[in-house]
User: What shape does this take?
Amino acid sequence: MSPLFIALTIIVLVVLWIIFAYNGFVRLINRAKEAWADIEVQLKRRYDLVPNLVNTVKGYATHESNVFENVTRARAQAMGLPDGKAGAGNLADKSKAETQLATTLKSIFALAEAYPDLKANQNFLKLQEELADTENKIQAARRFYNTNVRDLNTRIESFPSNFIASMFHFSAMEFFQLEEVAAREPVRVNF
Assistant: This one.
């Protein structure tokens, strides 16, 4: 074999490796973005359930207005933040707001303990069930997102793909983590 053929073969192999590595990064980034979109869908579902839950509870516990105001404020704050997409630098703020919303939602369920008629209300029970289902879906979506971010970050930091990552300016993404330990537990719903 001629040295020219060997050199061309090596060049072609290096170019192919760069192409495959680049495409691998693009695939991992798109998976992480898709996973974040799944989180956003579930958070939107939670946001939509909160006003119904608050209105149902208000009918039974009208003098507990501070609880309702806290939940409404936490919902508005969480909805008002940008979605925390990769590289936006606001994922920590989004996590904090979601933690606050989960904490205030727990106060509504604690309030329900003091009102036996509310605990037996079919609307309230259905909303509790839907919210519990949504919380489980949010938890699953977070795990899926964090798995994709882990895979991307591992690839960015691993040799030799780290050369391609730096050459094309691929950067690590943030994990979606809850701020406080109590909020790491899903909202408990007791029937």
